From TrEMBL:
PANTHER family: SERINE TRANSPORTER, SERINE TRANSPORTER SDAC. GO terms for molecular function: amino acid transmembrane transporter activity; symporter activity. It catalyses: L-serine(in) + H(+)(in) = L-serine(out) + H(+)(out). The chain crosses the membrane at residues 20-42, 75-95, 115-132, 139-159, 186-208, 229-248, 278-299, 320-339, 345-369, 381-400. This is Serine transporter. Its main location: membrane. The lineage of its organism: Bacteria, Pseudomonadati, Pseudomonadota, Betaproteobacteria, Neisseriales. It comes from Paludibacterium paludis. It comes from the Bacteria. It is a multi-pass membrane protein. Keywords: Amino-acid transport, Cell inner membrane, Cell membrane, Membrane, Symport, Transmembrane, Transmembrane helix, Transport.
Length: 404
């Protein structure tokens, strides 16, 4: 339960209050109601999919190949890479903006040119990568719980700062439902919620571990663990989101989005309070660094897998050390370029991260329920329709700029 919780709660949480609260109180309340079913039903579907294999202990790629063939296995490997790699790009922008804001607003010094600052930060993170995967995983597991504790303490600390701005701007539920802003906020917030609560990378190993522990009763046992973990996630994250939104006004959240910084950096610059001013950006730097390192491991694994499969088809091989060096250079150059250009972080989550995750987490297991005999027993549930609808909404955010 704690493993699932720790995997899901990361730097993505720092951007959710901005998108969730930017449209006012009513969309935020609606999202709070959606959060638990959205998270639970989707991850339960993916867990069931992994457990549907005829081979105990099979990981998600092997299950896809068993049910849909080798070609689909390659497609899933590609999708996994594109579900993780854009998030790495997001965090390269986020760490640059957070450190730049900290230097200018808290330290009172001029930040170096953006290209130089982003290169220094990315090379610094990559130097940590060189320490080895075991060191990274250990550091992440140590950092996650102090990070969550710090977020909760900050949310509590903000309570005296709560004001009525969000309520005053809310109006009646009727006027909100007739407003285009309500639906626009929900449309763009759903992929950010998918991104913020996502822990699909660990579901495969979670399902295999549960199968080893519980045997034939694995499905109800794993569902119990999931509902408890997701209850913890939703309560803690939504408390943090509400505390941030009640401390600011909708105009402040619009400004935070425009400045392309996390909610913690905005809070630090907004309140002239020594604790918030210094602690919030430091929490953000640690959280974004932790998430960057974790997603680097996943992106590297996906990228290496794609190259190895391609070379294998051509009857070629490559040394692991040589491939790792090539991958590291590719990651450094691409993250540095994106961090230098400074695209919208929330825009990247809305149109890249959230939609690709939704394809894997929401739609693939529901497709399997319709097509795979071992999963037919789960068909006909109303929750399946809900998961498909949320998945389609998250994916449709890709086309937002074309229609709005």
């Amino acid at each position: 339960m704690l493993g699932l919780y720790g995997t899901a709660i990361g730097a993505g949480t720092l951007f959710l209050p901005i998108n969730a609260g930017i449209g006012g109180l009513w969309p935020l309340i609606f999202m709070a109601i959606l959060a638990l079913p959205l998270t639970y039903f989707a991850h339960r579907g993916l867990t069931r999919f992994v457990l549907s294999s005829s081979k105990p202990g099979a990981d998600i790629t092997e299950v896809v190949e068993e049910h849909f063939g080798v070609g689909a296995g390659k497609l899933i490997t590609l999708l996994y890479f594109f579900a993780i790699y854009p998030i790495l790009l997001v965090y390269s922008v986020a760490i640059t903006n957070t450190v730049q804001s900290f230097m200018v607003n808290q330290l009172g010094v001029g930040a170096p040119p953006r290209a130089i600052l982003s290169l220094i930060l990315i090379l610094g993170l990559m130097a940590i990568v060189r320490l080895g995967e075991k060191m990274i995983v250990k550091a992440m597991s140590v950092l996650v719980y102090p990070f969550v504790a710090a977020l909760m303490l900050l949310a509590l600390y903000l309570i005296p700062q709560w004001n009525g701005a969000a309520i005053e701007h809310a109006g009646s539920i009727g006027s909100a439902l007739s407003s285009g802003l309500f639906y626009k906020t929900l449309w763009l917030a759903i992929p950010v919620m998918v991104f913020s609560f996502n822990h699909s990378p660990i579901i495969s190993s979670f399902a295999v571990d549960q199968q080893r522990l519980h045997g034939d009763s694995v499905e109800p046992a794993s569902s119990r663990v999931l509902i408890r973990a997701h209850g913890m996630m939703v309560l803690s994250v939504m408390f943090f989101v509400f505390s941030c939104v009640f401390s600011l006004s909708p105009a402040d959240l619009v400004a935070a989005k425009a400045q392309n910084i996390s909610i913690l950096s905005y809070l630090a610059n907004h309140f002239h309070n020594p604790v918030i001013e210094w602690v919030a950006p430091l929490i953000a730097i640690v959280a974004i660094s932790k998430s960057f390192l974790g997603h680097y491991l996943g992106a590297k694994e996906g990228f290496n897998g794609l190259i190895i499969k391609q070379l294998r088809e051509q009857g070629k091989t490559i040394e692991v050390a040589k491939l790792d060096r090539f991958t590291a250079v590719f990651m450094i150059l691409t993250t540095w370029m994106v961090a230098t250009f400074n695209p919208s972080i929330l825009g990247m989550i809305e149109t890249l991260g959230g939609p690709v995750i939704a394809m894997l987490l929401f739609l693939m297991p529901m497709y399997a329920i319709a097509k795979v005999p071992a999963m037919k027993k789960y068909s006909g549930a109303a929750s399946n329709i809900f998961v498909v609808l949320i998945g389609l909404i998250a994916i449709s955010a890709i086309f937002f700029d074309l229609f709005v």
